[in-house]
Amino acid sequence: MKNIAIISGASSGMGKEFAIQVSKKYNYDEIWLVARRADKLEELANQINSEKNFPIAKPVVLDICGKAGANSFGALLKAESDKLKIMESSLKIGLLINNAGFGTYGPFDETSTERQMDMVDLNCTSLTGMCGVALPYLSKGSVVINTASLAAFMPLGNFAVYGASKAYALSFSVALAAELKPKGIKVCALCPGSVSTEFANVASGGVRKEVKGGHDPVKVVAHCLKKAFKGKTIAIWYPKWKFTAFLSRLVSRNLVAWYTFNYNKRPHPVEKKTEEVSISDFM
Predict the structure, then answer these.
(1) Closest among 117, 266, 113 to 199, alpha carbons compared
(2) Which end of the chain is more exposed for a tag (fewer CB within 10 A), N or C?
C-alpha cells in the first residue's frame, strides 16, 4: 500500500510550513504539494527532498478552485490508484490538509462580486469536493485537517464573505469528524487568528503587505498537527485566540458585526461591482 500525505495551498504560508513539518515528523511514502505556482512548488519539493535519502515531496501543479478543480483532483487520485492496481497495490491518503484559500478585505459593496464568489468557490466548494473525492482513499488512522479561521466564530464587518466561508469550513469539519469517527478517521479544523503569511497582501489587494500582529506559522502548524493526530476536532494555538472563540458564545452576533464594521477597518482598494477580478494565486 502506498501511504501519502496531500497538502493544498502548499506554495507558501502555512501550507508550506505544513509540508516542511510533515516531511520531518511523519513517515509517508510521498507528500503531494498541491498549488498553482509551479516555481514555488518545485523550490519547496527540492528543499524537502534534499534532506531525504530518496524523493518524497511531489509537486502537483493544479488549480483546485470550485467544482471543476475538485473533480480534477479526484481524477488525479483515480489515475494514481489505477496505476497502483496494475502493480497489485493500493492507495491510502494518510493525511489530507486542505489549506488552500484566500480572503478579501473591505465592505461587501466596495469589493468585486466576482472575487467574492471565487473566494466561496475555493474556501467552501473546493474544501467540500477535496474531502469528498478523497474519502474513498481514507481509512482507519487517516487524518484530515481543514484550515478554517478564528473568523469562523462570528460575523465580521469588512470581512463578511471570508468569515462566512470559514464558518462553513468549521461547521462542516466538526460534523464530518462526528461522521468519520466510527471509521477511525480523524478530522480537525484549524482556526488561527493573525499569522505571518501572504494573507494580508492578497486580502488587501497589495495595500497591506504584512499581516498586522501576525504570529509565527511554525508554532501554529506544530500545534495543529499535534492536536489533529490526537483526535481533537478544533485546533486553536494562541491563548488570546481561544478566549476570543469562547467569548463569541456570549456576545451578540449583531453587536460583533456592527462593531467590526465600524471600528475594524481593513485597507483595500475600492472596486466597482461590475469589475471582473480573477482569483488570487494564494494557493
Answers:
(1) 266
(2) N
Closest CA to 146 of 275, 6, 3: 6
Structure letter (DSSP) for residue 195: B
Kindly state the average pLDDT of the residues 93-97: 98
Q: At what angle do helices 127-134 and 160-180 cross, to 10 degrees?
A: 20
Q: Quick count: other Cβ atoms within 10 Å of Cβ 185?
A: 20
For the record, the C-alpha cell of 232 comes out as 481533537
- The kind and range of the H/E element at 235 are strand 234-235
Q: Give how far the C-alpha of residue 27 lies from the chain's centroid of Cα atoms, to the nearest Å.
A: 22
**CA R_g for the chain:** 19
For the beta carbon of residue 107, count every other beta carbon within 10 angstroms: 15
pTM (two decimals): 0.91
d(CA 13, CA 15): 5
pLDDT value, residue 171: 98
Give the model confidence (pLDDT) of 161-203 as tens digits.
Answer: 999 999 999 999 999 999 999 999 999 999 999 898 766 566 6
Place of cell 449583531: 254
- Burial of residue 117, with CB atoms counted within 10 A of its CB: 0-12 exposed, 13-18 middle, 19 or more buried: middle
